[in-house]
Inverse folding.
């Protein structure tokens, strides 16, 4: 039996922290959009003040991306590579798809896409792509 | 990278989770090492070497040594 020294610290779970942060930021995102849908901000919509609401809804997205970056930084070396590959792959697919759609609007008369769909689309693509990325190579 | 990690872990009777805790990595990382889906950094290789009290080349096959012997 080799002499083994247990680490003097407990391995924290970056995934658990990421999930908590995701719930926090997405709750704000959902609350603001829900309030807007139910008319709380009706006086702002269609006016320059509406930009305050637009930016307020976008801020939790920035928070979510920060949480994702923290997940990558805080993970061990294997999971770090895995998360980075997954994010780059998902973002790349979304960029290609949105670029194609944008040019479809210009050249093929495709219906105009709401640009806020980019973020939900990123997560839909992620859900499909991430389970297939299992190697750090 | 070919390695004897699973055999060594079995010798001492640890689960992947127990080895992961000793190495301060995730269980997924231990599994990825065992199924050769992850090549460890030098730092992790040294940590594994300490945990099993063996030189790195007793645990990980050195592919460059094989190439130079051909």
């Amino acid at each position: 039996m080799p002499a083994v020294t247990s680490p003097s610290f407990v391995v924290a779970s970056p995934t658990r922290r990421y999930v908590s942060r995701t719930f926090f930021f997405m709750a704000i995102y959902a609350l603001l959009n829900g309030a807007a849908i139910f008319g709380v901000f009706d006086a702002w919509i269609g006016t320059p003040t509406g930009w305050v609401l637009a930016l307020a809804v976008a801020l939790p997205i920035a928070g979510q991306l920060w949480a994702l970056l923290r997940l990558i930084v805080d993970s061990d070396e294997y999971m770090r590579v895995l998360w980075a590959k997954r994010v780059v792959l998902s973002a790349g697919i979304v960029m290609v798809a949105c670029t194609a759609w944008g040019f479809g609007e210009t050249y093929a008369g495709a219906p105009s896409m709401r640009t806020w769909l980019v973020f939900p689309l990123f997560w839909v693509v992620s859900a499909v792509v991430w389970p297939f990325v299992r190697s750090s190579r | 990278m070919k390695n004897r990690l699973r055999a060594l872990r079995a010798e001492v009777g640890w689960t992947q989770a127990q080895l992961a805790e000793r190495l301060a990595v995730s269980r997924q990382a231990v599994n990825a090492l065992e199924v050769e889906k992850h090549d460890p950094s030098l730092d992790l290789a040294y940590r594994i070497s300490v945990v099993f009290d063996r030189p790195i080349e007793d645990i990980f096959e050195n592919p460059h040594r094989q190439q130079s012997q051909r």
Notes: Chain A has two domains: 14-74, 76-137. Helices of chain A lie at 14-37, 50-74, 77-108, 118-129. Chain A has four helices and no strands.
